[in-house]
Write a structure and sequence with these properties.
Elements lengths: L1 E8 L4 E8 L4 E5 L5 H11 L2 E6 L11 H8 L8 E4 L4 H5 L19 E2 L5 E4 L2 E7 L8 E5 L4 E5 L2 E2 L2 E2 L9 H11 L8 E4 L5 E2 H7 L5
Parallel strand pairs: 3-4, 4-5, 5-6, 10-13
Antiparallel strand pairs: 1-2, 2-3, 7-8, 8-9, 9-10, 11-12, 13-14
Helix pairs in contact: 1-2
The protein binds zinc ion (2 copies).
One zinc ion binds next to loops.
């Protein structure tokens, strides 16, 4: 079974997901938002081995906990371990994801070591996820889709009855809506969406109730 632990962290209540394959005990962290030491402790309790860290995008509230997480679990030492980000968000990463602009003090995070590309296949134990490049909220925003389990990690592309803001650096409303049309709406109704903020939803529910989707 694929297990999903959601932890809400940081100054703007961002969802961090620890996603693990129960059998192999292998897991990944999606968007280590804040409090990396807390995350490391949680992972230790779960007894999971972290294969990699996947960033949906480089806003500060999605990787503010990265530095302490890596230190807490000595992750950089693990063979095959990587921190992934789309290259189009590297500039945003360099300015700490806007943390300074928002007046939020943030530890320098180690540089991502893996570049995500459209269509990449990633694994969590025996489960396969596909990366889709979904710009609009930021230039290098990506989402992670596990077709076999009907699960989508949508970052700040789409929320329960909402969408990501498009007034920040690299943002574009029309581009964001195109990304949703292309990679979210074609999915089956029952696909569960785990977004970067707020509660879980489904593709069907958003098709019916999201005020931005008509
Ligand atoms: Zn964001
Ligand atoms: Zn966010």
């Amino acid at each position: 079974m694929l297990e999903i632990e959601k932890i809400v962290l940081g100054p703007v209540a961002t969802n961090t997901y620890i996603v693990g394959d129960q059998e192999s005990k292998q897991a990944v962290v999606i968007d280590p938002a804040w409090d990396g030491a807390v995350l490391a402790e949680k992972i230790r309790q779960l007894g999971w081995g972290i294969q990699s860290v996947w960033l949906t995008h480089a806003h500060f509230d999605h990787f503010g906990g990265l530095a302490d997480l890596l230190t807490g679990l000595e992750l950089s030492e693990h063979e095959g371990f990587f921190v992934g980000l789309h290259p189009k968000d590297m500039n945003l990463w360099r300015i700490k994801g806007g943390a300074i602009m928002f007046g939020v003090p943030m530890k320098s995070a180690p540089k991502p070591t893996h570049e995500f590309r459209e269509g990449d296949l990633l694994s969590v134990g025996k489960y396969e996820f596909q990366v889709h490049h979904t710009p609009g909220h930021s230039s290098g925003h990506v989402i992670f889709h596990c077709e076999s389990e009907g699960i989508l990690f949508s970052g700040d592309l789409i929320f329960k009855q909402g969408i990501g803001r498009t007034d920040l650096l690299g943002g574009s409303f029309s581009t964001l809506m195109e990304s949703i049309q292309k990679y979210v709406l074609p999915l089956p109704d029952e696909t569960r969406i785990y977004s970067g903020h707020g509660p879980e939803t489904t593709v069907g529910e958003e098709r019916r109730l999201n005020p931005f989707i008509k």
